Amino acid sequence: MDSKFNNIFNEQPPVTRQEMEAYLSGRLSPSEMHNIELKLEGHAISAEALEGFQNHPEAINGLDEINTNIQAKLQRHKAWTVNHTLIAAGIAGILVLSGGYFLNNSVQPETFLAEETPDKSTTIPPSQAHFVISEPIVITKEIEIELEEAHELPAEQQITAEFIELHQPVTIESDGVLNDDRMDSLVESIIELEPLKPIMNSQTREIQVEKIVQSNIKVTYLHHFLVVDYRDLYTAGIVKEVIQHDVNSGTPVWLEHKNDEVNAVNQDPIVQTVKIPYLEFLKDAQLKYKKNQYKTSLKDYHRILKQYPQDVNALFYGGLCYYNLNKPNRAIQYFDNVINNSVNTFQQEGEFYKALSLLALNKFGQGNGLLQQIIEKGGYYTEQAKEQLNN
Question: First CA to last CA across the chain, in angstroms?
């Protein structure tokens, strides 16, 4: 029993006491705070200790005295009984909650300085980045019930279609290096397909090449929303159950013949399974989002994800729906899947909106740290990230 108790304190915590004190002091930059928070991810005991210190920062000053008293008690009681076990467990709980978990490592040198910033032109692989790869999205009955019970954010806090259109980058399919002429022709081809806004040839040349987002898969626009064009991959379309309608009148069959004696026993709707072309189904979902119908559009994204779990359109716009429904935790899960998706179309958007979701959860260290990393990369959302940090 003695060894089990001591193992609680012998385990190496992810951060030192000095790092914890520096974090609580407020003297660290957002990036430095973010690095410490990343170390705590997945380590429940340390995260609870940090939360306890944030609520009671004065507690850290009394840890040395607590530790001395406990060690003295342990030396006096060599034989363990049930009562001693309970006492030890209680002491362990007190130490964990008050941050005593860090006492054994208080002599380690300070290592809370931010890691070296990579070159702005370097793409950080997901395995080395600060993002945690989420589990694939699985739509369960519980999630569907949760959706029904969700409530929208106030209108002024929502990420609306107008906000997305205003802030989204020009995105093109490209696997090569862009020069000015090639950039103009690619942008013009998108504008001709379905314009987001009138852009003249003279204006396209003013767009900075480094601000053009290059997608590794074909893209298009639906109701002015950028989407990945999966038509060639999703030849089966989207499978959906619908109520069967009479060919001539358009009335549901079960209502058309409800008074017939022959059909008297069939008073339930007649449901049939249909296959809807992918972009047709997605276009309807995007129209619902445009009308701020976030629950109904999210249900459509859920249907897509049930059939295609890594569909980046459903993941990205589904994450935005969850944000607007005041479910930032769910939104982060979706954005993590977007960021680590093999289709890179919405990776920059995923990072930016994940940062907003973290801020919505009052995780300012992580959110501001992510915004700082977006700035350091120098991508499309650099200016928006700066604005958020300055707010």
Answer: 53
Residue 14 in 3-state DSSP?
coil
Any residues with CB less than 8 A from the CB of 225 and at least 6 apart, and which? 161, 164, 165, 286, 289, 290, 317
Q: Are 30 and 372 in contact (CB under 8 A)?
A: yes
In a domain, 24, yes or no: yes
Of residues 378, 29, 44, the one with CA closest to residue 210: 378
Q: Over the stretch 160-213, which tens digit does the pLDDT of each residue have?
A: 999 888 877 777 776 544 445 544 554 444 443 343 343 333 343 344 555 667
User: Reduced to 3 states, what is the DSSP secondary structure of residue 225?
Assistant: strand
Among 260, 265, 257, 300, smallest CA distance to 280 is for 300
Give Dmax over CA atoms of the chain in angstroms: 92
Residues 207 and 301 in one domain: yes
Domains of the chain: total: 3
pLDDT of residue 107: 39
Q: Is 13 helix (H, G, I), strand (E, B) or coil?
A: coil
User: 234 by DSSP, 3-state: which?
Assistant: coil
